[in-house]
Amino acid sequence: MAQQVQGVVARAKGEPVAIETIVVPDPGPGEAVVRVQACGVCHTDLHYREGGINDDFPFLLGHEAAGVVESVGDGVTEVAPGDFVILNWRAVCGQCRACLRGRPQYCFDTHNAKQKMTLLDGTELSPALGIGAFAEKTLVAAGQCTKVDPAASPAAAGLLGCGVMAGIGAAINTGNVGRGDSVAVIGCGGVGNAAVVGARLAGAAKIIAVDIDDKKLETAKSLGATHTVNSRSADPIEAVRELTGGHGADVVIEAVGRPETYEQAFYARDLAGTVVLVGVPTPDMRIDLPLLDVFGRGGALKSSWYGDCLPSRDFPMLIDLYQQGRLDLDAFVTETIALTDVEKAFERMHHGDVLRSVVVF
Ligand code: APR
Ligand code: ZN
Ligand code: ZN
Question: Does residue 190's CB lie within 6 angstroms of at least one atom of ligand 1?
């Protein structure tokens, strides 16, 4: 039987979100209903509310979540009721060219639940990133659920569903950071600081954090950055070169999404080094680089989408490292809040004083 639960809904562009009663159908074939235990507040949720993603209002927000599978539909073999899972944005098809070539991260036939959750009057909701987890329960495709160690804290586990995974993955998957490497991270918000943590996990010897905000640099230091550079007071390209014996870093991770920081990333890398772009630019942004520099510096210029993560491989592995005390996910949980406080959390995020506010149920 369909259930009624409370959820955070954005009804119209730019308007504050509100708690609404939503209707969650029973899972159909290939679907699962998950009892959400924790869901982080991410910039993308705010972006949905502001109409920056698309106009498919009303949105059911929330997408960095962990919880327990309550029920599954016909044909579901991936998970069973009672499993503790982290949710990801999209189930992959397993059949397309990308999937068959072993790159399901780039699957072009991904899917979410087929049925829709609705408001009480029957209006269909658009779940943020196909999840919609600022709700006591949510309906997803079973392939969006990845089973992990149930002893892990839900607030920490949920973070792997989005921003923290994007940052860690940028370092360990896309950047392929290796033991002894020097790594520079430009922009140390939630994503950049997760890249710092990823670089440390991968065994980087030098981790240079760059930001314009000293508070963020302090956090980066506490998470494993060996050096910090405030790029308001020092030229970050010069500073990174100086800190790497005049060479530049083996891997530079850009986690801001602005032309000037893309350019800094490009020039802060060593010859034949790798630049990883995680910051998402807006459609109007351009950079203008001499082709001879692109050619002459060698190396790789890569973009990292969702940290090039493979949930089935990366979520359980990172949760195991967390459980062993080798990956401090708790450091990213600045505060835990109630479902009613999402709007307040957006405000705090705007002021840049939290890594993550996490709704716990
Ligand atoms: N140089 C260096 N750092 C900067 C600059 C700059 N010119 N401008 C902003 N920053 C810093 C901010 O001080 C902040 O610490 O970049 C950081 C951005 O962090 P958040 O706003 O918390 O954003 P985050 O969630 O980390 O996402 C960063 O990655 O996935 C993408 O869409 C996301 O583009 C965004 C980026
Ligand atoms: Zn997110
Ligand atoms: Zn596919």
Answer: yes
